[in-house]
Specification:
It is built from eight helices and six strands. It is of the alpha/beta class. It has a six-stranded parallel β-sheet. Helix 7 links the parallel strand 4 and strand 5. It starts with a helix and ends in a 7-residue tail after the last helix. The N terminus is likely disordered.
């Protein structure tokens, strides 16, 4: 009887917004970028060599326009690798009662279109997509939401209730938190799925706060 009441009341609850980044969170942008730029500049770097998201620091010959051109190349996102389980987790939970998934990403118009096409090809059903023509997500209202991002600066600048830093087993300049910083650190999407399961079990994100 109590279980039936809980399930009924839960359906009346507003869904928890989950804001998810694309580059470095859903897809392995560093691996794809090094493949692309290695071919262009005859180098042999890997994703493990990337310590900053300014690729000109690694590829000294590269100009800012080379990086823009790379991200605007249609083939870049058509051939990119998604992180294990990310699409499965979203697709399996998207139609549930607890979460409303939103994707937020920054870029030029051409870059955002390429990412939009990747999302449409890999994530099923309706999902909110927010493309920002600016280098920051600062100012986007994430009140009461969960935010998942691989760049620590994006988490610091947001007002999300729960912040999840996706590190992919890497310690880099762009994903290094301060000591005692209030966020959750994960290395793969199975760990993110465990957080979602805990929130569902407890009936809300208050259990994470």
């Amino acid at each position: 009887y109590l279980e039936c009441i809980w399930k009924r009341d839960r359906k009346k609850m507003s869904k928890v917004n989950v804001w998810i980044d694309v580059d470095g969170t859903l897809v392995d942008t560093n691996a794809q970028a090094t493949n692309y730029l290695n071919n262009k500049f005859n180098k042999s770097y890997t994703a493990n060599d990337v310590w900053w998201y300014d690729f000109t620091k690694l590829y000294k010959q590269a100009k800012h326009n080379d990086i823009i051109q790379m991200f605007e190349d249609k083939d870049f996102y058509e051939n990119i690798t998604a992180f294990d389980y990310c699409c499965d987790v979203i697709n399996q939970r998207r139609d549930g009662d607890m979460f409303k998934f939103n994707i937020v990403t920054c870029g030029t118009q051409e870059n955002l279109l390429n990412k939009y096409n990747w999302i449409m090809n890999n994530i099923k059903g309706d999902i909110a997509i927010r493309g920002l023509l600016q280098p920051t997500k600062k100012g986007l209202d994430m009140t009461g939401a969960i935010q998942i991002d691989d760049e620590i600066i994006n988490l610091r600048e947001s007002n999300a209730a729960v912040k999840i830093l996706f590190r992919n087993h890497k310690d880099r300049e762009y994903n290094r938190p301060y000591r005692n910083e209030e966020l959750y650190i994960v290395n793969d999407w199975r760990e993110i799925n465990d957080i979602f399961s805990f929130v569902e079990k407890e009936g809300g994100i208050e259990c994470l706060m």
